[in-house]
Amino acid sequence: MNNNKWPRHSREHSHSMRHYPEPASQPRRSRSARRHSADSEQRLLLRLLTARFGTLPAPLEARVRGAEPSQLELWTHRMLQVERLEQVFVDA
């Protein structure tokens, strides 16, 4: 006689057990986390541009602050290759 309260696991029971999806290896980041990341990228690019080219004109600073991450990445790479600040922001 089995005094155990829990049923024994068997193949017959395994097919009826509920299966839950595996957790995603990288969960989606929240909107605030993405915004924080973009803000960090903007601040970094502004610091790098200022260190390389001096004080930035207000319109260019505003453009950086309103840019998407993909645009910030492009500008960051471009600033390493150009000689003048205006060349960073030339639309290709």
From TrEMBL:
Location of the region described as Disordered in the Swiss-Prot/TrEMBL record: 1-40
Chain intervals with Basic residues compositional bias: 1-12
Name of this chain's protein: DUF4351 domain-containing protein
The organism of origin for this protein: Isoalcanivorax beigongshangi
Superkingdom of the organism of origin: Bacteria
Domain DUF4351: 40-84
